[in-house]
Amino acid sequence: MKQDIFQAISDPTRRAILTLIAIQALTPNAMAEKFDMTRQAVSKHIKVLCECELIKPEPSGREIYYHLNAKKMQEFDHWLAQFRQKWETQFNQLDNLLSTIKKQQ
């Protein structure tokens, strides 16, 4: 069963893995060293991230390096952009209201 991108990023460990490999491609062993969990547990998280295409494997010799799939992240960012504009407008309105209240005190 293919994983949903929102299920994938709802887990803090998977978000941490995305953050790690955004900097550089890593093997599962290298990722496991960054967490207090087994390599097998990390591999399960990697599997979910691969199924929703947020990361891509790249074999190199006997190792598999995982890269962030920037194109998929960009698709997700475009989807979020429609909401970002609305909440930024609301936050700006709140900032203006709070500034006005502060000036009146």
Automatic annotation (TrEMBL):
- HTH arsR-type domain spans which residues? 1-88
- Report the leader peptide range: none
Q: Which GO terms describe its molecular function?
A: DNA-binding transcription factor activity
Question: Could you tell me what this protein is called?
Answer: ArsR family transcriptional regulator
